[in-house]
From TrEMBL:
One of its GO terms (molecular function) is transcription cis-regulatory region binding. One of its GO terms (biological process) is regulation of DNA-templated transcription. This is Response regulatory domain-containing protein. InterPro entries: CheY-like_superfamily, Sig_transdc_resp-reg_receiver, WalR-like. One of its GO terms (cellular component) is protein-DNA complex. The keyword ATP-binding does not apply. The modification 4-aspartylphosphate is found at D75. The keyword Cell inner membrane does not apply. Keywords: DNA-binding, Phosphoprotein, Two-component regulatory system.
């Protein structure tokens, strides 16, 4: 690629590392290691960097305080504990997020506009939710396949 082509494409002066740093970053809060690895692989397939995963509320709060990310995917229950404190922190700082759950009926009255991703989900469903989080911060995603708001 010539310098003119690099300038035209917007990549002039951006190293490979710089391009990697431009990738969107999603905080994953999931207590099941196998599911967390699966989500991490799916995000990687979508060209998104996985921050974490955090397996507990304390770990999630630490990552929120110390890491930079664009949105979050939050398991509803972490080791049997409601993850609402993490959702409250994300809401307070204005970062979009979606809940993920393996339970059929999940009512998050305090977060009515937050999308709920029902496990198990596939790459296409995750991509739709992530796209909604990254392009319309804070916007609700209507029902799409296994996803409801």
């Amino acid at each position: 690629m010539t310098d003119q082509e690099r300038v035209s494409s917007g990549t002039a002066g951006i190293s490979a590392l710089g391009l990697a740093q431009l990738r969107k970053r999603i905080l994953v809060v999931e207590d099941e290691a196998v599911i967390a690895m699966l989500i991490e692989d799916m995000l990687d397939d979508l060209g998104i960097v996985c921050v974490g995963p955090a397996g507990s509320i304390a770990e999630a709060q630490r990552l929120i305080a110390t890491e930079v990310f664009d949105a979050a995917l939050l398991d509803v229950h972490l080791h049997g504990t409601d993850s609402s404190p993490v959702a409250e922190t994300l809401t307070r700082i204005g970062l979009p997020f979606a809940f993920a759950t393996g339970h059929m009926l999940v009512e998050k009255a305090d977060f009515p506009s937050v999308p709920v991703l029902h496990k198990p989900f596939d790459l296409a469903t995750l991509a739709k939710v992530v796209d909604g989080l990254l392009t319309l911060p804070g916007a609700a995603v209507t029902t799409i396949d296994g996803v409801s708001a």
